[in-house]
Amino acid sequence: MKNKFFIGIILLALTLAFAGVVNADDFTFTLSEGASKTDESEYWYMKLSAPHIDGMADKTEEALLNQYFLDYLDWTAESYEADKAYFLENYEGEEMPRFGYEYFYNTVTDNADYLVLKTSLFYAAGSSMTVNEYWTLNKHTGRLAELSDFADVWRLTKIRDMILDAMVEENKAGADFWIEDEENFDTAFAFAEEYNHWYVNETGNLVFTFDKYEIAPGAAGESQFEIVDDHAVLMKDNKYSFDLYVGDKLTIEEKNWFLDLTVPVIGGLADAEAEEAMNKHFIDKAESIKKDFEESVEYAQKAIAEGADPHFGYQYSYEILTDTADYFAFKTESFFVAASSSTSNEFWTLDKNTGKLLEWRDVVPESAEQAIHDRILAEMITVNASGQGSYYTNDNSLKAALKNVPSYHHWYLNDANQLVIVFDKYEVAVGAMGNPEFVIDRASL
Would the pLDDT of 251 be above 80? Predict the structure, then answer.
């Protein structure tokens, strides 16, 4: 995600270096939303919100900072639109990739001395990436603080050694920081000032931050080191950061058939055996689809020799659905198309507080299952009555489908912490209804 756009921060830092107006009294900063842009479709979404700062001593400095946030938002929106245009030109239907862009902000520190604003760019497609920047405002000067205000070149050299020592110690305790390549670390550390990867916390200590993949595998998420006296301390929020990425990939495209396998790999679970079991499940699923494809090709070749013209395709892919402070959810999708098409999904919800894969009974007590059944049935009847659906409202049919939900992984938690139940095509409705989804408010169960 780091590209030429970020070079602009160097010019901004130089521009902000000139002397400003200083008031003898402390300054009060006001943070509000400066601009927002949203978009959402079946395949992608964009949720952008840029901050706006008021109350700085130098209004030129303030205007430059707020313009930077607006430019960042516009650049993100342009990237989103470019991705949309590319995918619309090169894909269609069920092959359309899914992705999302988010730009948002929050306050990290707000004490008598400093206000620290954090801005985050989040991108999710096959895997996810977050790029953070921190802005430390001095309430006594009304200015945007610079790293040199807290550490000269000699002090920065010492801090560099402190952080590297902390990484070594953390690895002894089971972490996986990349300490063998000090050149890589030095490059990341050099970004601290250039990319605003530092701030002052509530206790007045310097904190250095490293984005995902900078100094450790993606499962580590963002790494933060607090400088306490003469040593660095890894800041831990006791939450897990999961990493989802492409493992094996196989694509075969012929005139009459295709195979497209994208096998996910999940990392970061608390239980290594559970993690291994999940990844083996994905590999086995892909192998099963590949075997079906090969058998279909063998049959199709015989049919072509007899004058037929069969066409078909198999696909296995994944998509991130939820990434909140507490939960990470994704789905794996098995797709088959011939004369008609069929899609079968599996959903996986991971708890960031425990590092575990959530089980059905962790979310739905047995006493709530009848209420879920009744609500889904009532919604199906209502939709049918409106002429907008063709659900099977036979009670036994729904009961049988609901029994499959836990074992077939047909549920997940969405961004609003709601329970979403998803049925396969033909399970509870005619094929034209696709894969019906029902959203259940857990608080009302």
Answer: yes
Q: Considering Cα of 252, then 245, then 437, then 355, what sign does the dihedral take?
A: positive
The kind and range of the H/E element at 260 are strand 257-267
pLDDT per residue as tens digits for the range 281-320: 999 999 999 999 999 999 999 999 999 999 999 999 999 9
3-state secondary structure of 78: helix
Share of the chain above pLDDT 70, in %: 94
Amino acid code (one letter) for 270: A
**What pTM was computed for the model?**
0.64
- Are the beta carbons of 411 and 347 closer than 8 angstroms? yes
Please state the separation of Cα 413 from the chain's center in Å.
Answer: 14
Pick the CATH number of 1-145 from 1.10.730.10, 3.30.565.40, 3.40.50.150, 3.40.640.10: 3.30.565.40
Q: What SS3 state is found at 88?
A: helix
Q: Can you give the residue ranges of every domain in the chain?
A: 1-145, 146-236, 239-358, 359-445
Asked if the domains at 146-236 and 359-445 fall in one CATH topology, the answer is yes
The single residue listed with the structure tokens 């670390």 is 185
Q: Which of 442, 260, 266 is nearest to 348 (CA)?
A: 266
DSSP track, 280-303: HHHHHHHHHHHHHHHHHHHHHHHH
Count other Cβ atoms within 10 Å, centred on residue 251: 10
HEC readout, 205-241: CEEEEECCCCCCCHHHCCEEEEEECCEEEECCCCCCC
Q: Which of 394, 391, 444, 392 is nearest to 419 (CA)?
A: 444
CATH topology of domain 146-236: Actin; Chain A, domain 4 (3.90.640)
Superfamily of the domain at 359-445 = Heat-shock cognate protein, ATPase (3.90.640.20)
Q: Is CATH 3.30.565.40 the right assignment for the domain spanning 239-358? A: yes
Asked if the model's pLDDT at residue 244 lies above 70, the reply is yes
